[in-house]
Amino acid sequence: MDSWIWSVRLAATRSAAAGACRAGHVRVNGVRVKPAHAVRAGDEVRLRGEGRERVVVVQQVIAKRVSAAVAVACYIDNSPPPPPRQEAVPVAARDRGAGRPTKRERRSIDKLLGRPAR
Fold first, then answer.
1. Which tens digits make up the pLDDT trace of 60-71?
2. Which end of the chain is more exposed for a tag (fewer CB within 10 A), N or C?
3. 12: part of which helix (H) or strand (E)?
4. For residue range 97-107, what is the model confidence (pLDDT) as tens digits?
């Protein structure tokens, strides 16, 4: 199992794939499996990780890691779409090379951020 997950690029490393199996994040046909579980064509593999669940149906069993284009042909992806990314709040930034803020600038920054006066 861990070898196939790594071979089709669902996990970055084989040890990460084996760790996911040991932690119970991989299910085949609804059953938790160990890293040594044999994979067969037609199996439904559910892999939890990276904040989402991947659901794939095995089309072809391979043992060696292949390119991404070939790997996509080895399974059918039935995963739900990934959740939308949240945009980061912009942080107040100073011009490069401006140095540390002066006492006056620190007071204005504190006032802008609503921090209490010291």
1. 999 899 999 999
2. C
3. none
4. 678 888 998 89
